[in-house]
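Teaching assistant here, posting this on the class forum so everyone can see the example we discussed in section. The complex has two components, and the goal was to see what a joint structure prediction looks like when all of them are supplied at once.
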Amino acid sequence: MHRRDLLKHAGALGAGAALSQLGIFAARAQTVSDYKALVCIFMYGGNDGNNTIVPIGASGYAAYAAARTLIALPQNTLLPLAEAGGAATFGLHPALGGATGLQAMWDAKQLAIVANVGTLVTPLTKAQYLQLNTAKPASLFSHIDQQLQWQASLSAAPSTTGWGGRLADQLAGLNTGMSIPSMISTAGNNLFVTGRASQALAIPTSGSFALSGFHNSAPDGARLSALAALLGVDRGTDLLDAAQDVMTGALRSSAVLKPVLEANTGAVNGYFATQNSDIALQLLAVAKIVEARATLGARRQVFLVSIGPFDTHTEQLNAQQTLFAELGPALKSFHDSMSNIGAGASVTSFTLSDFSRTYQPNTNGGTDHAWGSNHFVAGGAVKGGQFYGKWPELALGSPDDLGTVGRWIPTTAVDQYAATLASWFGVGAGDLALVLPNLAAFAPATLGFI
Amino acid sequence: MSKLFACTELSRQQLAAASAMPQARSPISYCGMNARIAPQLPSVLCRMMRIVALCGCLLTGCDGDGDAVSGPAASAAATLGATATRPAASASTIMPPAVSMGVTDAARLLEQATFGPTPSEVTRVAALGFDGFIAEQLTTPATTYSGFTYVPHLAAPGCHFNAASLGSAASTCSRDNYSLFQVQRQFFAHALTGPDQLRQRVAFALSQLFVVSGEKVYEAYGMAAFQNLLLHDAFGNFRQVLEDVTLSPVMGWYLDMARNAKANPAGGTAPDENYAREVLQLFSIGVNKLNADGSLALDANSQPQATYDQNVIDGFSAIFTGWTFAPLPGTQSVWMNPINFQGTMVSFPEQHEPGTKLLLDGVVVPAGQTPEADLKAALDAVFNHPNVGPFIGKQLIQHLVTSNPSPAYVARIAAVFANDGQGVRGDLAAVVKAILGDVEARGAAPSQPDGGHLREPALFITTVLRALGGRSDGVFLNDAITAMGQPLFTPLTVFNFYPPSYVLPGTNTLAPEFFIQNAATGLARSNFINQLILLGGAAPEPSVGGSIGTTVELSSLANVAATSADTLVDALNSQLVHGSLSSAAHEAIVTALNVLPADDGLERARMAAYLIATSQQFQVER
């Protein structure tokens, strides 16, 4: 999918005198030790995990094909995910890529797969799920509710913060002296990157990230002064304050990031030379910012990128083929570029999604909303080439199916998945509950994939 | 004759009013005079109007009642396929007597009920008054999307986009038929110049409730048909909207109700749930039970109560089986009729789930009914659910007036939805009038500190252009609105560009439009103003027929600037924010203006317009 180019403008706001009027100071270059970044890849719409990772052995595949009928992937197209000993029980969707995609990352032990992760308030068996008064996530199978629950890692009640935001809040002390917000989104505003004290900076993936139309002239200087003054008066009501805060932050951050995002000679650019998909452009922007981490004074950064739509009620085979063909190479290029700039073990990416989809297809060549799904974690620090979590019994009506069409009750909670990443990111064991308030409902707290 | 431009059909009231004006002579000058009613009629459109003679009376003569006589002009209109719908009121509707309203109140009404005030409209509506304006707008026929024709879902070889050859016939064919480009341009034309402003506003709000996205429906004729459906139904009954949307082939394709077949146990498939879920969650009742004032109806343990569960979804999924695209003209109708966004879907009883279906609140539809009977039962049940008034009413308030209506405001609107005063449930015209006439909407300023809402990109763009004498063919505007986060008719998901429940982080203040307001999109707004006001806008685009570019007209403001900087800021204050600029803001702008020579009125006008149009005081409409 290709987003339309943004307008390109001349005369973008330059550094120097104009910036000082707005209280922006030039970033000071620093050396950074112990840098870490988390890159959340949100697959919006509910990616069908059942066709992302597929049983590849004889009996496993036969059962899969019998259940999935018209949307079963051909066995000889699956990319084997070899485990210790060389044999493969599962294979990857072919479009996720072999040598230039996720299979290569798996073989290099930089990709882990966590099975059957989903939103839970408390662990559930099928019998417990069917009982009326068991605590279950609110509005299961509703896109927006499940997206928010994955982003908040809270399912019992609505949350005003996301776990990425709470992570940033918790580790804010490591980021003093950072010249831009510690969370950055190429996917617009999002609960995942909303904290109590901070919100992500939203950046465009193409076009200039800057205020246009100001040059070194007296009238332009006066106009800029008036613009700044207008941002400072009439404070005191929520809507206007919020609008003024957005613009003030935009001016400050864009002045710092404009040269970073426009740089085309950095080490990371070459890794994306042949890719111009939307997800590739987003990951390139992230890569450029990571490359500039010393200049930005960053030690802990949380990024959000997104890809979709995965809501494959129809034409699932085509949709996943197209999207995965973009995601696989982009993700490999991204992590290769991170290795190249010495951040290979410092940057970890991971997927989230609303839910998985029904094992049994519908009459339209697609699938409907389900629950527990399989997710990827990638990067140099990952203990890759292994599966984590517990596979559901992949059969319609099995003890893991809440009904008859193949909606797997999760065997790992989002909280545990998130806690594993938060722990690596630098949250001590005793502080995990501050970031993930419902973690104590699940055991073990972390899963060991990184 | 090209059908590129929609001919606006003027109401008889407008014709009568125009003919009473001393300046009205020839149809051309009438069209020029019509600038008072609809500011920017391109000259091409005026020429077409003359030919079509929907300025009818003036060419063919009128009888004593002002009714146009029949003749060649009327049939010419039919030949050209002018698609304006008939006014809802009868020909002899008496317009309410004009009871004037305050000028500031009139400006705010225009901000809420149109795509932006113009100085002449403020004066006119202030004199006309609220009831007169609403009555006029409710009876102004729709300006519809026109000139689109069917294309098959798979583009022919000569109609493929070629990035290496943008101006080629193939790329142009692809752009005009397999993208929403021409639909988006017509949206801007309607918003900037259409006389049916309130209908366009309400239809635009409905398009963000009953979402069909260009992400999946990229055939121009399909999206045009769906938007015309909403325009046609905007002042009708909500029950009709539910039915028309449900049977729309465009919605059928978007949310998979088209070709949704009954369960096939042997083949291991079950009915698709997509439309069942979204018609309940987004188009009618939402996921939780509501009180009439829009608050959650909590149970004895203070917990929200779900309106439906998976069993209900299964029931509705079964209801919505057995419908497919209408056959193409001259072909035999089969279940797998090819994708066809014309007309309405047709039923195939043998593809319809035969069993019982569970609906809301335990109601069960008996087995063996026709697809039509099942559909009626389901939509009746949905329509009559008590949630609909507050659920839909509150969102209409948010689109038109304020993000944070008081519970009492929502309750008042829900009451009108339940009963319009004539015993009718679901009367959208009554609901819209009640929303705009409510005490929380009217007056010279909002009654609440956080009244109002952030102008969404579409309203931000059109308000600036309408206030500043802007003209546009929509091409530049379309790029700009995409950079601001609102690619027209193309939200990423069926949840629209922004959810109605979005609150400002750290507050309890609802602010849906802020979901797409961030550093990237905020800068895009400012940079759009820079290009529009300081860099001359946009030149005509050679690959677009009839392109006129985008410009604003600041010469009258330049004349005002000659008086003083204060007078200039006062004028822009009045035109853009109905005089609500604070003295601190005023002073900040005057300080900057004084750097420019006093006799350079145009430069001063540009600077002042830039500063106010980019200000957050203008972004937030109050």
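For the discussion questions: Chain A touches chain B through 76 residues (CB under 8 Å). Confidence is low (pLDDT under 50) at residues 1-31 of chain A. Think about how each of these relates to the inputs above.
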